[in-house]
From TrEMBL:
Stated name of the protein: p53 apoptosis effector related to PMP-22
Subcellular location, record wording: Cell junction, Desmosome; Cell membrane; Cytoplasm
UniProtKB keywords: Apoptosis, Cell adhesion, Cell junction, Cell membrane, Cytoplasm, Membrane, Transmembrane, Transmembrane helix
GO biological process, alphabetically ordered: apoptotic process; cell-cell adhesion
TM helices/strands, residue ranges: 12-32, 77-98, 110-131, 151-172
Pfam families noted in UniProt: PMP22_Claudin
Transmembrane listed as a keyword: yes
Gene Ontology cellular-component terms listed: cytoplasm; desmosome; plasma membrane
Segments forming a coiled coil: none
InterPro entries tied to this protein: P53_induced, PMP22/EMP/MP20/Claudin
Domain of life: Eukaryota
Length: 196
């Protein structure tokens, strides 16, 4: 039977796997058109990180305007994109770090620090977008920040969790590398009543 605790060498691929999941969610957020959508029919508004689209209730085609014409649109896209690029770099570094037999724990802690930088950039982009969007763009009907925006936040939450684990992993260096011998507890049958 294989027992896999929080910091065991067999489970070292869980953290890079979680970073890969954060990258997938970041790609969905960057490419998705569901940052803002109409809440109910008629669907007259939708927006992505890059553009805002509207249409009249009886029209079939969307009329889109680029959010890159606004300073805040460029800032939101740039900060989220910079965070995403650093996240991809952290993923590559994590795969390299966990592939070698002699794990460099200071290297792992550095990845955790970079992940906090990723989270900061992504949070800045995710906060700028809704605040300035609702101030500068005329909203039609009832709208909500939707699934692609939610994937952006989900990616950020996973990154924050991984950052804590990467920073704390060196505290369990001996357990991860298997340098600690297991401790066995044995009590004789005549001492068993005193253990209660």
């Amino acid at each position: 039977m294989v027992v896999c605790g929080l910091a065991c060498w067999r489970c070292r691929w869980l953290l890079p796997l979680l970073l890969g999941l954060a990258i997938i969610m970041g790609i969905i957020a960057l490419a998705g058109r569901g940052w803002l959508e109409s809440e109910s029919e008629p669907y007259v508004q939708q927006a992505s990180l890059w553009e805002s689209c509207t249409r009249t209730p009886d029209a079939l085609n969307w009329k889109c305007e680029s959010l890159m014409d606004y300073g805040w649109g460029r800032a939101a896209a740039a900060t989220y994109l910079v965070g995403f690029v650093i996240l991809v770099i952290c993923f590559a570094l994590a795969v390299i770090a966990f592939s070698i037999e002699i794990l460099r724990f200071n290297f792992v802690r550095g990845i955790g620090g970079l992940l906090f930088v990723v989270a900061a950039f992504q949070i800045i982009g995710l906060v700028i977008y809704p605040v300035k969007f609702t101030e500068d763009i005329l909203l039609m009907g009832d709208n909500m920040f939707s699934w692609a925006y939610g994937f952006g936040w989900a990616s950020t939450v996973v990154v924050i969790g991984c950052a804590f684990f990467f920073c704390c992993l060196p505290n369990w260096e001996d357990e991860v590398l298997g340098n600690i011998k297991p401790t066995y507890y044995y009590s004789s049958p005549e001492r068993a009543p005193y253990l209660n």
